[in-house]
Structures are given as structure tokens and as C-alpha cells.
């Protein structure tokens, strides 16, 4: 499979968003794939997500998409809250050791309509390689009670990102309907 190569002339998102599993601690450990040594096909990973253990980490380009996926998990009883890691996409893109498959690349290269539709619906970005803790700029937890979202708070904010993080919490509050 041809790897995605970053093009510095392209307009790229400055942040990626990851809906965290309960056992993920990105501030302490970064974000790792479930099985970094796996050889799962990228199309299979996008179609099946967390149901298979792969060498990939799924993220999204938009806060709206990560919230949609989090709400989906809550509606279907998989969780009663959501934790979101906000990743510095610019710095991650500049590092060696990771390959980033953005939504455009996925649209052009995934092998099935199901995978393409899923990637489009959630503005998916797939990272191959570990996302180091130094690229995490914020971790947000949104809690759910009495059939509505009740709060969104920052569990962590990287030094120097406080204003951006405060703005993001306010935006998420409006998007979740409690502000």
C-alpha cells in the first residue's frame, strides 16, 4: 500500500480529535494502537474500528465528528461519558515515525464503499505509529446524566494552550446542548 506523504503546501487541520477508550491515558502514555505489530488491512480497520486489534489509531478532523461518535456510543449503551484527546496535528505531521492517512487519502484509497462512507461520515484520520504524549494539547471529559449531557471539563491542558482550550470547552458545551 502506498503511504501518505505530507504536502506542506496543503491546508491541513491544526487539531485531530480522538474519542478515548476508558483505559487510555494519553497524558501519561500517549496513544498507542491496540496491536502495533498487527498487519491489518487499512480498509478492514476503517470498516471494523475498535472491533479488531490493529496497528492503527483512528482520529477525526473535526470536533463535531468526535462528538457524533461519542453520542453514538452513549446512545448504544457502550458508555455513559466521553473522553476526548485533542492532538496537535501540525506537530504530529512533522514528526518521523508516524504515517497519517487523512480523509482525502482514505476517500481515494479505501477498497470498499462501506469503509469510504464511514471515513467520510466521521471525517476520519488514521495514524499508523504511536501518538506521543507531547502531542496531546487537551483531554476533555463530557458527562451524561438524566438523558442529557451535564458538563464538559478539561482533565488536562498543555501549558500554553489555555485560551484555546477554554474556547473549545465553551464550543463543546454549546454543541452538546448544556450552555
TrEMBL record:
Domain of life: Eukaryota
InterPro entries found in the cross-reference section: DUF7587
Domain DUF7587: 15-141
Pfam families membership: DUF7587
Protein's recorded name: DUF7587 domain-containing protein
UniProt organism field: Dreissena polymorpha (Zebra mussel)
Amino acid at each position: 500500500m502506498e503511504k501518505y506523504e505530507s504536502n506542506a503546501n496543503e491546508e491541513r487541520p491544526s487539531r485531530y480529535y480522538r474519542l478515548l477508550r476508558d483505559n487510555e491515558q494519553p497524558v501519561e502514555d500517549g496513544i498507542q494502537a491496540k496491536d502495533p505489530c498487527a498487519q491489518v488491512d487499512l480498509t478492514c480497520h476503517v470498516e471494523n474500528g475498535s472491533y479488531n486489534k490493529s496497528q492503527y489509531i483512528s482520529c477525526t478532523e473535526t470536533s463535531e465528528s468526535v462528538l457524533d461518535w461519542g453520542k453514538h456510543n452513549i446512545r448504544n449503551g457502550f458508555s455513559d461519558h466521553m473522553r476526548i484527546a485533542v492532538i496537535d496535528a501540525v506537530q504530529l505531521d512533522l514528526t518521523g515515525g508516524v504515517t497519517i492517512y487523512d480523509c482525502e487519502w482514505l476517500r481515494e484509497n479505501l477498497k470498499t464503499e462501506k469503509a469510504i462512507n464511514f471515513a467520510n461520515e466521521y471525517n476520519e484520520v488514521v495514524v499508523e505509529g504511536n501518538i506521543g504524549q507531547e502531542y496531546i494539547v487537551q483531554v476533555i471529559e463530557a458527562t451524561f446524566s438524566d438523558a442529557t449531557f451535564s458538563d464538559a471539563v478539561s482533565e488536562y491542558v498543555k501549558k500554553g494552550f489555555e485560551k484555546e482550550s477554554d474556547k473549545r470547552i465553551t464550543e463543546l458545551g454549546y454543541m452538546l446542548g448544556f450552555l
